[in-house]
């Protein structure tokens, strides 16, 4: 049976659950083992379907209440409302194409993203009963997808000062070596490079702290620092537990991060 790891919040929450799937008994010769829910990175379709069925069984929801987008490292956001749930599968897939963040107010609907080193951000305003999930690789972090999500949540009735944000397993700064073109992309977007980048003294290579970049963006959006947490798990350091593209290659599984309003 698929196993999930609950994500931490900065304060106790009732009625909202956020989690990540774990790989299970990872086979070092199989970069998709054991539980992968992502259907566009080369895994066998039946294996992916079986993993989704097992997750829905653990969550106690129907398969059509598990919603994940086709991510492209952009800033597009989809609202999962009743119109979306009532649409046919083709219409749903069209609305999820090229999307990197989801928002919903619907109970018993699990929204989630798939990552293999990128930052995953689960957000909620417990007072407004609004939840969201975002995928932030370096492009999404640089272009401030977290700000876009908070703004979208506010348009639906949330308040930034009430939003809580939690980030799960994703690549740590020590492991995230990047070229100077990545540093330049953050600088062009007016990120404070001094607070998110350091250079390895031995190699001179830059290392970006993606979680810090996302946290600073959330704070710019009005989310209090005391409401933001990363659990500290690095997907590359713990690639037997979480999928890591830097460790396994891009043709590998993805860790699913989900959030759900419990009915």
Summary, kept brief:
The chain is an alpha+beta fold and 263 residues long. It has helices spanning 45-59, 82-86, 89-96, 138-142, 145-155, 180-188, 193-196, 210-220, 245-248; strands at residues 4-6, 16-21, 66-67, 77-80, 101-104, 110-115, 119-125, 130-136, 164-167, 177-178, 197-199, 206-208, 228-230, 255-261. The radius of gyration is 17 Å and the shape is globular.
Give an account of the 3D structure.
This protein is α+β, with helices and mostly antiparallel strands. It has a single domain, classed as CNF1/YfiH-like putative cysteine hydrolases (4-Layer Sandwich). Helix content is 27%, strand content 23%. It has nine helices and 14 strands. The protein has helices at 45-59, 82-86, 89-96, 138-142, 145-155, 180-188, 193-196, 210-220, 245-248, and strands spanning 4-6, 16-21, 66-67, 77-80, 101-104, 110-115, 119-125, 130-136, 164-167, 177-178, 197-199, 206-208, 228-230, 255-261. The strands form three sheets. Strands 4-5-8-7-9-13 form a six-stranded mixed beta sheet. Strands 1-2-14-6-3 form a five-stranded mixed beta sheet. A three-stranded antiparallel beta sheet has the order 10-12-11. A hairpin with a 4-residue loop joins strand 7 and strand 8. Helix 5 runs parallel beside helix 8 (210-220). The longest helix has 15 residues, at 45-59. The protein is globular. It starts with a strand and ends with a strand. The mean pLDDT is 97.
């Amino acid at each position: 049976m698929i196993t999930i790891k609950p994500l931490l919040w900065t304060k106790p929450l009732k009625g909202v659950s956020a989690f990540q799937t774990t790989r299970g008994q990872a086979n070092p010769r199989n970069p998709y083992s054991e539980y992968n829910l992502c259907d566009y990175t080369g895994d066998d379709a039946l294996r992916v379907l079986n993993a989704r069925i097992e997750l829905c069984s653990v969550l106690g929801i129907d398969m059509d209440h598990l919603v994940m987008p086709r991510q492209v490292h952009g800033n597009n956001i989809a609202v999962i409302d009743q119109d979306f749930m009532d649409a046919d599968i083709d219409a749903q897939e069209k609305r999820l194409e090229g999307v990197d963040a989801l928002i919903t107010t619907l109970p018993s609907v699990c929204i989630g993203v798939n990552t293999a080193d990128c930052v995953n951000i689960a957000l909620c305003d417990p007072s407004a009963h609004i939840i969201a999930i975002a995928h932030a690789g370096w492009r999404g972090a640089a272009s401030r997808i977290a700000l876009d999500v908070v703004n979208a949540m506010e348009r639906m009735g949330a308040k930034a000062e009430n939003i809580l944000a939690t980030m799960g397993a994703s690549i740590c700064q020590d492991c995230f070596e990047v070229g100077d073109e990545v540093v330049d992309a953050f600088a062009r977007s007016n990120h404070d490079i001094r607070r998110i980048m350091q250079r390895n003294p031995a190699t001179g290579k830059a290392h970006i702290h993606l979680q810090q970049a996302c946290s600073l963006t959330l704070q710019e959006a009005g989310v209090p620092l005391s409401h933001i947490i990363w659990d500290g798990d690095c997907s590359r350091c713990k690639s037997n537990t979480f999928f890591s593209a830097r460790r396994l290659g891009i043709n590998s599984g993805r860790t699913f991060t989900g959030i759900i309003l419990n009915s």
